[in-house]
Amino acid sequence: MSRALGFICFFIVTSLLHSQTFSGRVVDFKTKEPLMAVSIYFDNTTIGTTTDDQGVFSIDFSDAIQSNLIISYLGYETIIISNYRTTSTISVELKETLNQLNEVVVNADDGLTRKQKLKLFRKEFLGFSEFSKSCKILNEDDLILRFNKTDNILTVSAKRPVLVKNKSLQYEIAYDIQDFEIAFRYVDPKLDQYSTHSVLYTGTSFYKDVSNRKKRKTKKNREKAFKGSVQHFMRSLYDKNLRKEGFDIFHKKFQVNEWEFFKIEDVKDSSFKKVALNTKVNILFDLKDQSVLEPRVAYFYIDAYGNYSPITELLFGGVMGSYRIGDLLPTNYGLESN
Prior knowledge:
- The protein is mainly beta.
- It contains five helices and 23 strands.
- The chain is globular.
């Protein structure tokens, strides 16, 4: 199965939940001087802030937040904080990133031209849908692309977060690549023909909403992107209303009772639910979009907002497996006004 695996951590905010504030100060590790305009955000959301001229920041979160807090500054190592619930304030010292790039290696002839590598990266990073086609990478010069012609693997890194403008969904996305790898079954540079085996990527992202909230077309596009997505499926699974939301489950070509395959139980003192699934199943959405879900663990956890864990152990194929950055919504989509 050709598959894509993206690592994204999640959070949701709603005014019905108890709100808390996390604050801190960010300074340079060596000089101890405050750092201004450091990006502070919850991964894969539209919720973020920056430090002031004293390096101070403050950001609110609710009991429903599940994602890591990201502290990112150009030229410095990124800090990821997961235990912000255990303390209300923090002091952070950022270390400068050592520039270990070897320009000779970066610019070496590895069997593919930069133009060819960029084309392959755009396709697998942004996606193949109508929404993906409206996306544009704003800083391609920051991309470092290497092709291993022995193993037929393209790896991509970047000097700074990859900036993407999604015209259809009206988001500007800053995606900080940690790892990106495309493994090919077949490569013919002369004929410009390629067959992809798998795409694996990890990173953090921040969404900036650039829409006019009254614009009907943007709202319609976002609703279309949500329907049938992994996020939609996980929310429906949590609420145990898969069929009502348009999802039918099949096993070995036969439609089945979904609750004979998905065993769901509450987790004590937690908003999560535990889901056991011991076999690969097919998912049909709206009687036309076909996907495959293959678990690599005995059970996983979900919450009401579409968050699930461990994300790396659930493999999606078909329509859901084809989703890329150009199709994704921030995890607080549709819940801001609840």
